[in-house]
Design a protein that fits this description.
Blueprint: E1 36-43, E2 49-52, E3 55-58, E4 64-71, H1 74-83, H2 87-90
Antiparallel strand pairs: 1-4, 2-3
Length: 95
């Protein structure tokens, strides 16, 4: 007589990562907030003016500058991540 078939219990489901859709409110229970910024910094001749990609920008007495821009354009962020994917997006997670 054959041994009875014993069904294996289903494997536990992986935690679901919330999908964020631009322009829609974040689900409060997700506990997630995403902000993007573009940071440009460098140094140059103190008290000088530079052309920063077509924009005049003044360098202070210390010779350093920093520009921080809030980025909220989803198409721009998508292109940036496609062209320069950080390792966290391409690395496999351990089981």
């Amino acid at each position: 007589m054959d041994a009875p078939f014993l069904a294996q219990p289903p494997a536990p489901a992986a935690p679901r990562i919330p999908t964020l859709i631009y322009g829609r409110a974040i689900q409060r229970h997700a506990g997630l907030l995403i902000e993007a910024e573009l940071r440009i910094h460098g140094s140059g001749e103190p008290n000088s003016e530079i052309d920063l990609f077509g924009q005049r920008y003044f360098i202070g007495a210390g010779g350093r500058f920093q520009l921080l821009i809030q980025v909220d354009d989803p198409a721009l962020l998508t292109q940036a991540l496609l062209q320069h994917p950080p390792p966290e997006l391409t690395r496999l997670r351990p089981e």
